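Weekly structure sync - notes
Attendees: PM, LS, DV (DV joined late)
Agenda: review two folding runs queued last week.

Item 1: First target. Sequence and structure tokens pasted below for the record.
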Amino acid sequence: MNQDNRRLTGLCLSFFVLFFAFFAASNQVAPTLGDLGKTSLAILYSAFAVSALITPSFLQCLANRSNNDNNKCDNNNDNNDNKDNNNNDNHQQSNSLRAETTALILGSALYAPYLFACSLGTKDSARWIQLLSSGLLGIGAGFLWVAQGSLLTASCTTQNRGRWSGIFWASFMSGNAVGNFATAGALTKFPISSVFLGLSGVSLLSTLTLWIFVRPRTGNMEVSNMYARTTLLTGVGEENANANANENTMEADISSGLYEDIVKLWQALNTTSVQTLLPLILFIGCENSFWGGAFTDVVSTKHDSNDVAMVSGVLASADIISSILTGMLLDIYRIDARLLLSVGLLSLIAGSILVWMEKNKLEMDVAMLNTSTPSSSSSSSSSTASSSSMWMIYVAGIGMGVGDGICNTVAIMRLQVLSVRYRLMSRRTAFQLFQCVNVAMTSITFVILSQYPATKSNVVWYVFECLAILSGLCLIGNRQAYTEED
């Protein structure tokens, strides 16, 4: 296993550990803290979006600090040779991945305070701690996810990009699945406050695994040597090996300031290929908060926290399987990404409709309780209806998990391709774009849910379905957004 593959393996392991803790906790935040929990999640994702916007500049600052021995030439020397040397310095700093590994460690460490604050419960004295720590987590998440996307892109090749995108997403969602199943068991023996406290400790373990296993590139090892080893393992031809070796050196320039980062982000947004992907990225943000907020709200209204954890675990398990299969289909069988996305969008729409049906059944049950008198027969029918609805909830979870795995794996891979193959943006800009747009939509959806709860209103379904339809319509747009060919 070469150095890049070892780094990616460590990245997958660390994200499994971190999101074992975070997803298990976040799915219990709204049921436990109520409106305060939804507000804290909205703050979290708002801070995440802002943090993602500034992270490329932050990464460049880290790179500059860690490369003091390779400082740029004096600013007074503005001849072409010095400009070329500066560009080479930037690429060497970028390719070392030292900034990305540092940001991953820092970002992961900022998850623990929020999980600890949630363990304090609904006490008035804990509210400001929960809101403040949710903002800190959002800042850390911006560092974490943009650095992750940059490191993933730099460490992949043309032949394994889809597979590693799928494997990464599967590892990330494995944390979701295992964390929720573990929480379901823990809640039968421990109070929710103790579960939150334990999960905060688990999240800190991910910081340790990132520090141990996700190391920057050492020495002056050239990109071509790394891809030459990959070529021997994958059996690709010499011509493809040379193309792989040049991928990182061909990518768009890494910027060095916030203004330059925003300009490059705006330039990327003005390209047809990125505009074609934009509705999908918005939809991903909406559906993430849909199954993390609306879905869990509907389930928790009629069932207990243990059921919420079990359903969330099943959703994540379906997500894992679909993301791995999607990565393999993209790399090995070269299945058209638009075909896969069609399946993913339909699966998510079907799952959301089942949740909507369950929500309507809850409203009908409440109406019946208000107009009927208690009896043994009504109690028996209520128990049967509850058992029946639980199966529908599990089917909805599977549908949303399958769709989420497909949509995220395709989006991550295509952003990498647009970055390194078509040079529409740097790899940092690509994931700055993904996280800013995706997370901003997640935050907006949580705000919608706080104002129009899913158990009482259909507003979130209107937003969800409109974005799904718009994403589907964009599949017939610019081919470069979804295919390898120009």
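Item 2: Second target, run right after the first with the same settings.
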Amino acid sequence: MKKNKLAVILFFISTTAISANIIVEKNEANCRKVNAIGSNDKMAIATEEKVPLSSVNFIGARWQSGRYGGMSCIFIFDTAKGPKRCEVIALLSDDNGKTTFGVVAPSGIAGCY
């Protein structure tokens, strides 16, 4: 499981990250600093839920129990089919950790619930 997560993170970094982005630890403090989402996240959620892209809105990030137990940074989106919770795969920062942004769908599959 850890190898899969590492592979996903490395894939994301190698394909979409700008060199100024750094990976920050997924913890409560960094989850509270989230001010943006990954560039493909809304499209992945809209496709997965079969709703218009315009109906997908990022509400915010919360530090809470994840889908499979344990605490995690969860992004909450409002969609035409109701709210969706998406576990963050990676938290990144482009300003040395002052603010963060997260990625829930680096491969185009969000896996939200």
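Discussion on item 2: Helices lie at 2-16, 28-32, 41-49.
Action: LS to circulate a short write-up before next sync.
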